[in-house]
Amino acid sequence: MSYKVLVDSNSYFRLARDIHPLLGRPFGDPAYTLYVIKELDEEFAKSQRLLSKFYWVSDEQYQANRAACNLGGNVDSFDLNQTVKFMKDHKYNRGLGVSKIDIAVLATAYLLNIVIVTDDSDVQEMAKDYDMVECMTSLDVLGWLHGEGILTIQAVKATVKMWKYEKDLPMAEPIFIEKFFEAFGVLPW
Description:
- 56% of the residues lie in helices and 8% in strands.
- The protein has helices spanning 9-15, 39-46, 48-53, 60-68, 77-94, 100-112, 121-129, 138-147, 153-165, 173-184, and strands at residues 2-7, 31-35, 115-117, 135-136.
- A four-stranded parallel β-sheet has the order 2-1-3-4.
């Protein structure tokens, strides 16, 4: 049996280049398989900043991997639209900075009762508000893949060094270094 995990856009952009194919293949025991939603491509195509920073996302191999591994068809559209509507209201009531695609990810994960991967603290807050199964971060995914023997510590460090180089750490650098050390017992760089 493979458990589904939904990866939001910020985590996808951090992980998919170095762990390819990231989506659609079972990792570990028990097996977890990572997916995205089709709105990720819509968000990417509309943002010049994303197109420039994550140019590799347009490569055919990544596009094919995302197209084959999105969860959009697994959710009833009426239920999804209703859940998105309630979550938008909740976002405004709480004053959270959650984007349209973040809400689509949350709603899909909520309806499918599956884990999400996100580095966005507001998305994590909403996941808690809705008593979602679990919320992982990109660093958690690296730790899990390392623990399963899928990634070496050198591969993990190379990935996070690229995040630092691209100024794309998921949190302030001192906090990131502390969390990395807690997870891996070594410094990230």
